[in-house]
What we know:
This protein is α+β, with helices and mostly antiparallel strands.
Amino acid sequence: MRARAPGKLVVSGAYAVLHGAPAIVTAVTRYAIADTARPAERVTPEVRAALGTAAAPWFDASELRGPKGKLGLGSSAAILVASLAALALDAGAAGDDASLAGAVLERALDAHRVAQGGGSGVDVLCSALGGSLVARRSAGGLVSDRIALPGSLSWEVWAGGAPASTAHFVAKVEELAAREPSRFETHMASLCTAAAEAAAAASAGRAGDLLTHLDAQRRGLGALGQAAGVEIVTADVAELGAIAAREGAVVLPSGAGGGDVALFVGRGPPSAELCARRSALGHAVLELSLGARGVHAW
Length: 298
């Protein structure tokens, strides 16, 4: 049996979601495919954590990778969700999307957490459920609500071509929290406030307010990175973000940052000046759409 699961894009709430704030996450039309009819050529740590010594299916996640490696679209989560879904279908699970997502979600969340030593789990959640979600951690696990991202806004995803380690970046931020707790709390409080306001604006369809609160996170993530000694907002993204801000638009890192993918959000497409500078810096527009279908039989 074959199953397909989408990658994801973190629109809002990076780092803050680990501290109780809501994140906006959306599935993208780039997928991992798993096939139980073919033997695995490689088994990821996440799939191994889920299956133990049991045989894993073959997978293809080339749509979620670029010439230099991962794109930052949640490939590890998509591979895990697709693999578990293919095995569930093989075992006779119902093939409709909701049933399939329900059959694999908790197991995928547990395995991803074990393999990565923590994390928010929003990438796994989004890969399973699809669409666009506001998600937050709670005592009972992850909770989420479906939303529609404001259609009046223009969205683009830009690949920076410099794959970054999410675990390394999160560890550096945690070191800041241990070393200078007061300084860390100041930065995190600002990010959590902006993330909560962004989630509320997106849920209510307030496009202008969403732009405002995404821009606050752009600045907040830059400040957090400087304090932690890690380039969450790279020099390239900072430059592109400054140009976008003059146009009333936002360019900010998606997820942990560090050169993977950046998100452009504006009331219209990026200007000729911004496009020219983006190209000069070697950032490529990724062909994809947001709000993609979740895990499904393929």
